[in-house]
Amino acid sequence: MENKTEHHHHHEVSGKNLGWSIALNVAITLAELIGGIISGSIALISDATHNFSDVISLIVSYIANKLTKRKATDNQTYGFKRSEIIAAFINSATLMVLAFFILYEGIQRFIHPITVAADWVIWLALASIVVNGLSVLFIRNDAHDNMNMKSAYLHLFSDMLTSIAVLIGGLVMKYLQWYWVDSVFSIAIAIYLLYASWGIFKSALRIIMQFTPSEIELPKIVSEVEGITEIENIHHVHIWQINEHDIMFEAHVDLKRDVKISEFEIVLTKIKEVLARYKIGHVTIQPEYSVSDNKQIIY
User: Fold this and answer.
1) Which of 156, 226, 274, 299 minimizes the number of CB atoms within 10 Å of its CB?
2) Which residues pair with 253 in a beta bridge?
3) Could you tell me if 88 and 148 are in contact, meaning their C-beta atoms sit under 8 angstroms apart?
4) Alpha helices, DSSP H only, in the chain?
5) Residue 216: how many CA atoms within 13 Å on its side-chain side?
6) H or E element in which residue 288 lies
7) Predicted local distance difference test score (pLDDT) of residue 146
């Protein structure tokens, strides 16, 4: 027996704002790449690479946002609800790879400082800060309760921090010729990126692998369900998430006596009340009586 106990109404992501962010980041990526080649600045080229990753992450987020709005069909009974989780996974994984790249480049630059045309670095870093700052503002509201948009937001925010580091490095190089400063900021930002993206990566991976949500304690649920008078035991339990918000639950339930369907509906209501306390909204229960099978909770 299946029952969906609640419907979630979530914040609607603005595709228009996402589109503007993509356009702005394409422009600054090209500008920094050209400026980096002309000035000989590895810092600018690295920042352009980071901005390009923003473009990719925003496009992935945009596609995922469109897909997740599609209705379920006979061939996709859950629709594309998990597309945003996959996008968050890809974006966070990409960010971690880039963080290692920036860390490596930062160490290399610290060992071998490079003299560059500081004016190009300063002006293009300023432009990148403005572009990424605007992009962050465009999608800030969408990032509050959407893992996909949060990962895109983190890309943009981290790139804005990177551009600030590049700007400071440019100013220091111009006026003090301390070329090692740029590498120190790069290393610090890379460490921050690894720390910040790991949480999203881990959460997305848990959902993709259909692990039990971290906030749910299965033994407590089993204890409460088995505390219902009519229930002998609960077994073959599965708890997983389709996306950030929708938690699914299925299990076999042994009843103490043979009952009519109308009587079991009363028992099902009690089960739903228990599960609702854990924000589980989609419940599928297989009622059993005198069935000889494995009674393990996890099977």
Assistant:
1) 299
2) 234, 287
3) yes
4) 15-39, 42-68, 83-111, 118-139, 147-175, 180-208, 218-226, 261-276
5) 21
6) strand 282-288
7) 66
Q: Kindly state the DSSP code that residue 177 receives in the 8-state scheme.
A: -
Which tens digits make up the pLDDT trace of 226-245? 999 999 999 999 999 987 77
User: For residues 278 and 82, what is the distance between their CA atoms, to the nearest angstrom?
Assistant: 21
Task: Give the integer Cα–Cα distance in Å for 212 and 215.
Answer: 8
C-alpha span between 95 and 154 (Å, rounded): 9
Question: What residue ranges do the domains of the chain occupy?
Answer: 2-208, 218-288
List, in sequence order, every residue forming a beta bridge with 283; answer none if it has no partner.
3, 249
What is the rounded CA–CA span in Å between residue 204 and residue 58?
Answer: 17
What does CATH list as the number for 2-208? 1.20.1510.10
- pTM confidence score: 0.71
Q: What are the C-alpha distances in Å from 41 to residues 53, 109, 110, 166, 174?
A: 19, 11, 14, 10, 13
Distances (CA, A) of 269 to 211, 220, 248, 262, 265: 26, 18, 16, 11, 6
Cα(127)–Cα(28) distance, integer angstroms: 7
What's 293's DSSP letter? S
- Tens digits of per-residue pLDDT, 119-156? 888 888 898 888 888 888 877 776 666 666 777 777 77
Q: CB under 8 Å to 101, separation ≥6 — which residues?
A: 46, 49
CB-based contacts of 8: which residues, under 8 Å, 6+ apart? 245, 246, 281
Asked if 185 contacts 144 with a C-beta cutoff of 8 angstroms, the reply is: no
218-288 homologous superfamily: Cation efflux protein, cytoplasmic domain (3.30.70.1350)
